[in-house]
Design goal:
Layout: E1 11-14, H1 18-29, E2 34-38, E3 62-65, H2 72-82, H3 86-93, E4 95-96, E5 101-104, H4 106-118, E6 123-127, E7 139-141, H5 149-159, E8 164-170, E9 173-175, E10 185-186, E11 202-207, H6 209-221, H7 243-247, E12 275-281, E13 288-291, H8 300-307, E14 318-320, E15 323-329, H9 332-335, E16 341-342, E17 345-350, H10 360-378, H11 391-402, H12 430-446
Parallel strand pairs: 1-2, 1-7, 2-6, 7-17
Antiparallel strand pairs: 3-5, 4-5, 8-15, 9-13, 9-14, 10-11, 11-12, 12-13, 16-17
C-alpha cells in the first residue's frame, strides 16, 4: 500500500466508496499525488457496510443495463470505459450472468478496486475518520449516503443549509442450494439474452392469485423497523423503494413492479404466473442470489417468516437479510458550480451520491469527472464540462444547475436529462439517436474540439 511518512499529497479525497475510488484513480493516473481517507478499517463502520474494502457495494450487485445503444446507463458505462474508469474495469473482472444487465460478484469487485488503488504509487490510503471539512487545500468530498453525522454537520455549516436525507433499503440475499427448483425455474423475461447470459439468468418463483394476495397482506401486516425521531418524514428515493411501501400504494402495485409476471412463461404450465419473485445471481460462483426489487424495512424475523411463504423459498437460507440506512445528499444545483466546486469554499469539490445522483455507475461517473476537473486545475489548466449531449455531461449538467434547486431530489441517468435530438426522429430510432450523437460528441470533447448544442 502506498502509505509512507514521506508521501506529500497534492489533493485530499475523503471517502473510499465508488466515487472517491474513481476520483483517486483519475487523479493518480494524471500524475497527481492523492491522499485517500477512508474511515472503515480505522475503527469505524457504517450501518450498511460489512467490510473495509474500497468501493464495497451495499445494496444491489447490479450496475443495471449494459446496452450502450438503447439505454442511458449502458451509454454511461461505455463513456466511462472510454475514459479509463477503474470502476468499470474492475466490474469487468467481477462480472456474473445477469441477462442484458451488468452485475458483479461484490467481493471480487471490491478486491479489484482496493488492489489497484493500494498498488498505485501516487495514492496514499489512510484509514481515518474525517469530522470536518478542511479549511484549505484541494479536497474532494465523496463520503456517500452514509456520511458521518459530525462531518455532515460540518458540511451543513459550510453550506449554510441542512443536508437533505432519505432512506435506501437493502434487498435480502439467499443461498442458491436452499431454493426449491422443482417449483422455481430459470429464465429471463421474454428469454432475452445478455452479453454474459444464456437467456436463463434469473430464478423465478411463481405465485397464483391466492398466494399473491396473502403475501401482499403479509407485507402490510409485517413488523417494520422503527424510525428514530430525526428520521421521521424523510422521503424515499423511488428507485430504491422498500417493497412494503410500494405494496401500501395498492394491492396491484407489485404486480406492475418488481413482481411483474409479463414475459415469463412457467414451463410447468405454459402460462405466465399471476405474480413472480425474481432472484438474480449475486456472486461469480452462483451460490448467492438476491431478491430483485425486494429492498425492505421489515424486521429480520418478519422477513424470514414472510419470504419463506414464497413458492420455492419455503426452506430459504438467507446470507443477508434486508435492511435500511440513511442517505444524505446536498442541494447541488444551489451549492456547486459547474466544476463541482462548493461556491462558498471553492477548494472543496463534491462527488458521488453526496451530489444527488443515484446509482453505483452515476456516483462513480461523478467521481471520475470530479477527479479530472481537479487534475486539470492542479496542472494549471481548465477542463470544460463534457457536452450535455453525453450521458456524463447530461448527468453533471442536471446536478450542477439543470435540476430545480427548490425541490431537488436524487436522479439516475436517463434520456430525459439529454437535449432532444435535432430534427424529426421516429420513436423507434429515438434512443439510438441519443446514443450515436453522444458517442460522437464525447469523442469531440476528448479531442478538444468544440461541440455545438442545438437550441430546443
Amino acid at each position: 500500500m502506498s502509505n509512507t511518512h514521506t508521501f506529500e499529497h497534492q489533493i485530499h479525497i475523503i471517502g473510499g466508496g465508488l466515487a472517491g475510488s474513481e476520483a483517486a484513480w483519475q487523479l493518480a493516473e494524471a500524475g497527481i499525488k492523492v491522499r485517500l481517507s477512508e474511515m472503515r478499517g480505522g475503527g469505524d463502520m457504517t450501518p450498511a457496510h460489512q467490510t473495509d474494502g474500497l468501493a464495497e457495494l451495499v445494496c444491489s450487485n447490479s450496475f443495471r443495463s449494459d446496452d450502450a445503444d438503447r439505454n442511458a446507463v449502458g451509454l454511461l458505462h461505455q463513456e466511462m470505459r472510454t475514459l479509463g474508469s477503474l470502476i468499470m474495469a474492475s466490474a469487468e473482472k467481477a462480472k456474473v450472468p445477469a441477462g442484458s444487465a451488468l452485475a458483479v460478484d461484490r467481493d471480487i469487485f471490491s478486491a479489484a478496486v482496493t488492489e489497484a488503488l493500494s498498488n498505485h504509487p501516487n495514492i496514499q490510503i489512510v484509514r481515518e475518520r474525517i469530522d470536518s471539512l478542511p479549511e484549505s487545500g484541494p479536497t474532494i468530498v465523496a463520503t456517500g449516503p452514509l456520511t458521518g453525522m459530525t462531518l455532515a454537520q460540518s458540511i451543513g455549516a459550510a453550506t449554510g443549509e441542512d443536508a437533505l436525507a432519505f432512506f435506501d433499503a437493502i434487498a435480502p440475499i439467499i443461498h442458491r442450494d436452499s431454493i426449491d427448483m422443482d417449483i422455481c425455474w430459470m429464465a429471463s423475461r421474454w428469454d432475452k439474452v445478455g452479453p454474459e447470459g444464456d437467456g436463463k439468468d434469473y430464478i423465478n418463483c411463481p405465485m397464483d392469485k391466492e398466494q399473491y394476495l396473502a403475501f401482499h397482506q403479509g407485507l402490510m401486516d409485517g413488523d417494520k423497523t422503527e424510525f428514530k425521531e430525526w428520521e421521521k418524514d424523510t422521503p424515499y428515493f423511488e428507485g430504491c423503494m422498500p417493497i412494503e411501501v410500494m405494496a401500501s400504494r395498492g394491492v396491484e402495485t407489485l404486480r406492475f413492479g418488481p413482481m411483474k409476471p409479463v414475459g415469463l412463461d412457467n414451463p410447468r404450465t405454459g402460462r405466465w404466473p399471476y405474480a413472480v419473485v425474481q432472484l438474480r445471481q449475486d456472486n461469480k460462483l452462483g451460490t448467492l442470489w438476491n431478491m430483485v426489487g425486494f429492498q425492505t424495512k421489515l424486521k429480520h424475523g418478519a422477513q424470514v417468516e414472510l419470504f419463506r411463504t414464497i413458492p420455492g423459498l419455503e426452506k430459504a437460507e438467507f446470507a443477508r437479510l434486508g435492511g435500511l440506512h440513511r442517505n444524505t445528499f446536498i442541494n447541488s444545483p444551489r451549492l456547486l458550480d459547474e466544476q463541482l466546486r462548493l461556491k462558498a469554499a471553492p477548494h472543496i469539490r463534491f462527488a458521488g451520491q453526496m451530489t444527488g445522483c443515484e446509482g453505483y455507475v452515476e456516483s462513480a461517473s461523478i467521481g471520475l469527472i470530479a477527479g479530472r476537473f481537479a487534475a486539470a486545475e492542479l496542472q494549471g489548466q481548465v477542463l470544460d464540462a463534457p457536452p450535455v449531449t453525453t450521458a456524463l455531461g447530461a448527468l453533471l449538467g442536471h446536478i450542477t444547475g439543470g435540476a430545480e434547486a427548490s425541490d431537488f431530489q436524487p436522479m439516475n441517468v436517463n434520456f430525459g436529462l439529454f437535449p432532444p435530438p435535432e430534427g424529426k426522429v421516429h420513436k423507434k430510432q429515438r434512443k439510438e439517436a441519443y446514443t450515436s450523437r453522444a458517442r460522437a460528441d464525447l469523442q469531440s470533447w476528448i479531442n478538444g474540439e468544440p461541440v455545438a448544442i442545438a437550441a430546443e
